[in-house]
Design brief:
Blueprint: H1 15-19, H2 27-31, H3 39-47, E1 50-56, E2 62-68, E3 75-78, E4 81-86, H4 94-101, E5 104-110, E6 117-127, H5 130-134, E7 145-157, H6 160-165, H7 182-189, H8 197-214
Antiparallel strand pairs: 1-2, 1-5, 3-4, 4-7, 5-6, 6-7
InterPro entries: Pyridox_Oxase_FMN-dep, Pyridox_Oxase_N, Split_barrel_FMN-bd
Domain Pyridoxamine 5'-phosphate oxidase N-terminal: 40-158
Pfam family, one: PNPOx_N
């Protein structure tokens, strides 16, 4: 594949040039941004089993991480504070290390079947407060730490992206078997996956067993 480079003649490099491409923002799009968690925002968060958290280190390296748990897993501590449990993962700790360097975070809350989403921006702190962690137990296991977010902006995001993507429409669901398993993809990209199908199947089965053992 030939390397692609943006033609500098068509690059947008300043805000004025950017905004000239679009109509003026609707007043409600500006007014909808709130500084606290309204009753509607709180209700949305309590229904959500999934969010994505965006972080960035001091060098500008960005990361987005998915977080999921039973419905209502994010604790609403007050109208300006949220707490997200940190469940077992691969221990890369990308999100957590970024927060230590740069506490600014962006959250996107998603509810299955809802086309609209909730966006929350704020500043994060990591805590091992035993009382808070104890309130986040699942299967009698408390997280090692929690991400506490001091909210600065909250607003609903419209349904266009989800409707364009048909994300919840079963007619548009794709067959996962049309791509290799996640383990095979990683092995292909690193040390190399075994050519023997039975050996590869054993590795896939082992991952499924690990999911069951280490989900919490």
């Amino acid at each position: 594949m030939k390397e692609f480079k943006v033609n500098p003649d068509f690059a947008i490099t300043d805000e004025q040039s950017l905004r000239s491409l679009f109509d003026a923002t609707h007043a409600l799009a500006i007014q909808k941004c709130q500084g606290t968690l309204s009753t509607h925002a709180q209700a949305f968060i309590r229904r959500s089993p999934f969010l994505c958290i965006g972080t960035q280190n001091l060098d500008g390296k960005a990361d987005v991480s998915p977080r999921g748990d039973p419905v209502g897993f994010v604790k609403i501590l007050d109208e300006r504070t949220l707490a997200i449990p940190d469940r077992p993962g691969n221990n890369r700790l990308d999100t957590l290390v970024n927060i230590l360097a740069n506490p600014t975070v962006g959250l996107l809350f998603i509810i299955p079947g809802f086309d609209d989403t909730l966006r929350v921006n704020g500043r994060a702190t990591l805590t091992t407060d035993p009382e808070l962690l104890g309130s986040m137990r699942v299967n009698d296991r408390a997280p090692k730490l929690a991400i506490v977010v001091e909210v600065s902006e909250v607003f609903m995001h419209c349904a266009k992206a989800f409707r364009r993507s048909h994300l919840w429409n079963p007619d548009h669901f794709q067959d996962r078997t049309e791509m290799p398993s996640i383990v095979k993809i990683i092995l292909d990209q690193t040390t190399g996956a075994p050519s023997d199908e039975d050996a590869m199947r054993k590795i896939d089965d082992d991952l499924e067993d690990e999911y069951k053992r280490t989900l919490y």
